[in-house]
Amino acid sequence: MDYSYNYGFLREFMESHKLQKRDLLEALGCSDYVSLNKWLDGKVPVHVTAMLRFCNYYNIPMDGFFYDGDSIPCIRPSLPTADSQTLPTDGYGIKEGRGRGIVETRVGARKITSPNQAKAVAEGLERQNDQQRLRDELLIQQKEMEEKDGEAEDTSISYPTSTNSTSVTEHILRLQLEHANDMRRIESEHHDREDRIRRDCQANFDAERNRLMDIIERQNSELSSLYAQMRKGGARYDYVRESGEENED
């Protein structure tokens, strides 16, 4: 293992989803722009509880906040048991003047602060539904295999050889991680395609605008020349007319 923190992930997520700072504050469960700016600038890591809430808010895996120099995915949180401590000893919030308290990681009602925030949340909920559906399908398949006292061999899916819940959980988490990575890749390709289309449209617009400006400039030049010729012709006509009148006198 060779873990390191991804100091650029928060800004990358913000820019790729076109979110605003107030959107991130809602997702991170804080209201401190000073801390947020430090996190976005990569000066300090995001607090652990704020990071967990952020991942829960958008339904994204937390491995985006980390790198592993060994390229071996090992961030697989285990399922809590009845004896697991999932809440701080003194609870959340400010108590007895001890600082600002701890950010609550679980997300209840979301406060949507922008259309892009709503879009990012909707994408996360869709991912969550897909993952839950995949988990249910795997559990059903596992149960069917146990009932048949055998394991079906599939070249595309490698089922766990153990029938205990730990093996099933690890297999589900591995598939969820692969699914999340695929979703991030698809989203990145989608945003890249949008950027290319936007750049191409802008380039075509600029080219057409320049072409029209050239036409207008050329027409203005031709009109100026025509006006100059008309003025010269008018002056010559006045001179001839005045000369004729003098001869008559």
Protein described:
This protein is an all-alpha fold and 249 residues long. The chain has one domain. Helices cover 61% and strands 2% of the residues. It has helices at 9-16, 21-28, 33-40, 48-58, 115-147, 165-248, and strands spanning 3-5, 66-68. The longest helix has 84 residues, at 165-248.
If you average the pLDDT, what whole number results?
76
**Fraction of residues in H or I helices:** 55-70%
Write down how many β-strands occur, each being a DSSP E stretch of 2 or more residues.
Answer: 2
* Number of structural domains: 1
User: Globular, elongated, flat, extended or rod-shaped: what is the shape?
Assistant: elongated
Q: Care to give the gist of this entry?
A:
By secondary structure, this protein is mainly alpha-helical. The chain is built from six helices and two strands.
SSE layout:
Layout: E1 3-5, H1 9-16, H2 21-28, H3 33-40, H4 48-58, E2 66-68, H5 115-147, H6 165-248
Antiparallel strand pairs: 1-2
Key features of this structure:
about 250 residues; single chain; 6 helices; two-stranded antiparallel sheet; mainly alpha
